[in-house]
């Protein structure tokens, strides 16, 4: 009897526990179903700020994932540009784009949006998102279409040409290391002095002739004080709507380099050096001067950290101060895929991490570039090394907001997409190849060579305009022409209105 009573009591207890579980919503089963599954979003691109665990991009990804642990997991796939372009084309064909992806080379945001591969981000980011960026960061026809925002700027002003000078080399040659050349004559004479003192081991000028595409930026830098120059469009004059490779200024600049070659002042291996090799040679005191874009600074600091160098404006024929036009809104950028199942999570990551002030602080501290947020650029406490002071000052003094063809007529973006880019790298040989030929072979008429090349590019632009118009668009060469542009001043909205 006692045994029977014990069994009954135990059964009653079990039943009570079960009922209690039902009353509280199902016990463990209910708690399990209430727990949200971790959402994974994928980000893909070829931007260097995602290269390596210590990169600025990966640092904010790690912090974001830690903050949202158990709820969100961001996975980034970094690839070299050629590999990335192939992978994204395959993803587009298979309707399997990552949640956030970068425009592949050869495409722009306009094409991506037109084909329905991206969705606007406005509803997925905070209301004040765009206000954190410098004025001019968002532009109709560039990263905004029909009033909807699809991307944001990844960097700030991008100075495409500055003079890097090695202070150790100058000092060893008896030159004042704090007085870099300001004119072509000074550049030539100082280079001759360095070369003579170097006795076959140290030279005046170095460049990366093994990677010829950026060499038009070298000549662009040498001529920016005398000819209207937009840094993003080397060799094209937005004041006249014409290419300028055959201009007196560019011809004289090429002849200057030819003269310096005859002087023996150019490091002989320059004609075949890759950029990484030229960086090391410059940093290891094999050359005094290097005309290159903003990215050379951090690469020298990375590869030859003990190098003593600084930067200044590129020397001009007459010594005038050079100015470079720029635009912040970019036709390339990261965007939310239209295939994303979690656009709200993608927007949260963009808002709180990828396009946050913390991310841009990290990119500034890496020394790679300026940011699209003015207050960060001015904060000297973020500068990674003393040379960054010069870097900032050069951008502030030399760069002005330039005309935007897309702002004037969004259809110009379609023309540029047809060309590939305004420098028309599809036209072979490109300017850099022609420059190396004119220097190496020491033959060929500079005027004739550059005139033929220039004619091809002007004809190519007109052909692209005609082709786009046949598709129903309305664009003309006038849309690439801004006669009221003064390079030393910002190109403001009232100047656009004056054109009409």
TrEMBL record:
Domain of life: Bacteria
Residues spanning the signal sequence: 1-23
Pfam families, A to Z: SBP_bac_1
Keywords: Cell membrane, Lipoprotein, Membrane, Palmitate, Signal
Name this polypeptide is given: Extracellular solute-binding protein
